[in-house]
Write a structure and sequence with these properties.
Elements (H helix, E strand, L loop, with lengths): L1 E2 L2 E2 L4 E3 L8 H10 L3 E3 L3 E2 H7 L13 E6 L3 H13 L4 E6 L4 H4 L11 H14 L4 E6 L9 H10 L4 E5 L13 H10 L4 E4 L5 H11 L3 E4 L28 H19 L4 H13 L5 H8 L5 H33 L1
Parallel strand pairs: 3-4, 3-11, 4-6, 5-6, 6-7, 7-8, 8-9, 9-10, 10-11
Antiparallel strand pairs: 1-2
Helix pairs in contact: 1-9, 2-3, 3-5, 5-6, 6-7, 9-10
The protein binds flavin mononucleotide.
């Protein structure tokens, strides 16, 4: 997939996720082969007030798309230009955030109710940046106001290079299923790349979305939590193949260590344990007896205690798995 002149190495992209797609997380996804990583959404107004020191864009993650939200076209354009100056590989304008505190300012999904304003924003931002400009939209405000196609056509006319659609309405939030049919409708309505998003949790599902909708790329959000391996097949021809074996326990434990070190290097010693706990939860979700491990996790405040708990948990799961495979071998030899 190409965004403007920018050729991506894979059509699988990491979704912007507030509180999650920080520098360490983006680096892990990129390291696995993800074609494009997004920052979490950044308030354009907040950026002007507080400065951009929180944002780190490094060459090792190139291209990083900086996602901005806001409502003032001039401010968005000015901040987009600043982000480009800092090394953003692309700029994305958020037209889909359903959160009350964002919507009440007129930003995020609320903008979809005002196509003229969307146009003004996109025209102004387009004039200020040379890197690819993209938007991320929802289906519309509610079931009575589905206008993703109208907004996509406006975006194309304004010189936007690609559109990501998460086909749920603002009112829907994350409930129900994403309406993949709408991804196909948007794709057929415009001549720029369309990235489909919503409910893709495995490479085979990414392939299904590509085939059913004709979209150009697939964005993955929740499916990447605790699972950077989801990006390891760069080429969509391989997406149909579920990994023969899921990441081993050793790979998971190593990934937690790696993630911890990146987090520590980025945020400093203080706060790293708190930051990493949610990821440890995701890395271990679905493993044997994870419930009791998870309830212990939130009480761990020191690095040493955290790693001791992680290590003994993985040790427990390993022994349990060995025991289970021994038992099934025994059963087979008795019944066989
Ligand atoms: C915790 C969380 C934070 C999110 N933050 C953002 C955000 O900052 N910007 C944005 O456009 N979408 C955000 N989203 C929406 C995702 O980018 C994506 O559209 C949504 O999760 C659906 O994709 P999925 O089914 O692959 O998770 C967020 C989603 C989650 C779960």
């Amino acid at each position: 997939m190409k965004l403007g002149n920018l050729q991506l190495s894979s059509n699988l992209v990491l979704a912007p996720m507030s509180g999650i797609t920080d520098y360490p997380f983006r680096r892990l996804a990129k390291g696995m082969g993800c074609g494009l990583v997004f920052t979490e959404m950044v308030s354009a107004e907040g950026w002007l007030r507080k400065g951009e020191s929180f944002l780190k864009i490094e060459k090792d993650q190139y291209p990083v798309s900086v996602q901005l939200f806001g409502v003032d076209p001039d401010i968005l354009a000015e901040v987009a230009q600043m982000a480009e100056g800092m090394g953003a590989g692309a700029i994305d304008i958020n037209l889909g955030c359903p959160a009350k505190q964002v919507v009440k300012t007129g930003a995020g999904a609320d903008l979809m109710r005002f196509p003229e304003r969307v146009k003004e924003i996109l025209v102004k931002v387009r004039r200020k940046v040379d890197v690819p400009l993209t938007i991320k939209i929802r289906s519309g405000w509610d079931n009575e106001h589905i206008n993703a196609i109208e907004i996509s056509r406006i975006a194309e006319d304004c010189g936007v290079d690609a559109i990501t659609i998460h086909p749920r309405t603002r009112v829907q939030g994350f409930r129900g299923r994403a309406d993949w049919n709408l991804i196909g409708e948007v794709k057929r309505a415009v001549n720029i790349p369309v990235i489909g998003n919503g409910d893709v949790t495995t490479p085979p599902l990414a392939k299904k979305m590509l085939e059913e909708t004709g979209c150009d790329g697939v964005m993955i959000g929740r499916g990447a939590l605790g699972n950077p391996w989801i990006f390891r097949y760069k080429n969509s021809e391989h997406w149909g193949r579920e990994p023969a074996t899921p990441p081993s326990l050793e790979e998971r434990e190593n990934m937690i260590h790696h993630h911890f070190l990146l987090t520590q290097a980025f945020y400093g010693e203080k706060g790293t344990v708190k930051e990493i706990r949610k990821h440890v939860y995701w890395y271990t979700k679905g493993l044997s007896c994870c419930g009791s491990f998870h309830s212990k996790l939130s009480g761990l405040r020191e690095k040493e205690a955290l790693f001791e708990a992680i290590h003994s948990y993985f040790d427990f799961v390993q022994r349990r798995n060995q025991c289970q495979s021994f038992e099934s071998m025994e059963t087979r030899s008795v019944t066989g």
